[in-house]
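User: Is it possible to get a 3D structure for a protein together with its bound compound? The compound here is zinc ion. I've pasted both below.
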Amino acid sequence: MTANLAELAVGLAWLVAIFVPLEWARPAWASQRRIRKGSAADLAFMAGQYLLFGGLVVGWLSWASEGVGQPAWLSAVQAKFAEQPLALQAAQAIVLGDLLMYVGHRLQHRVDFLWRFHAVHHTSERLDFLAAHREHPLDGLYTQTLMNLPAVALGLPIEQLLGLIVFRSLWAIFIHSNVRLSLGRLQVLLGGPALHHWHHANDRHAGNYANLAPWIDWFMGTYRCPPTEPQTLGLDGPHPRGYFALLLWPFIPRRIAGRLWSAGLHGRERFSGG
Ligand SMILES: [Zn+2]
Ligand SMILES: [Zn+2]
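Assistant: Yes, that's possible. Here is the predicted structure of the complex:
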């Protein structure tokens, strides 16, 4: 536990060192404060991932990548896959993972059962590098499984698989950060924070479902890139704000949850700092 706490502190220090200067130099919302509404809950989600849930996901993916009881045809595909240079293997795993995750993310927004868990991520009313960690552990398990399924099925070596998980995690933190970077026309290929900020606009079907590959959104007609940043983020309905309540929220019938948390619901507000 002490080692995990030390890891959490080191991880947070690295993120602060990377993202605080970036958010200070190129803010998307210049008046947003460093310690703002929801910071404590986001920090709790980060701690939960470092201390418990992240390890469970990595353990599950490592176990799956050992290929216990896989069919012979899959072993043959893996042998062909392994003949390629590692960079090509990683590129294929990333593209296939993105395609699968695009479908998975659209389902998270469309299917009510999946939305119950994914909605926790969308309760953020302010975005920065810390807000990226706001994710229900079961939603995180779903996302990580889909995203890494092609890499696991194709037999990408575990070291590369772990590297891929770290790379994707850092990218996810980057696209939530309070940063505005203009990539011009390249944005449709590489994406960036602006696209994911619009994904967090207060509309369940806001678009921009791909994290790494916005060309999939462009191709599917869900690409959305207005010239300014969204000013109202989060969910319109009543929802809890604390860490433990957000963990429980998906399991509580909506009728009861609506009554439980509507008392604390303040009106939706446009962004005004804080
Ligand atoms: Zn989403
Ligand atoms: Zn997000």
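The chain is about 60% helix and 0% strand. The chain has one domain: 36-66+77-262.
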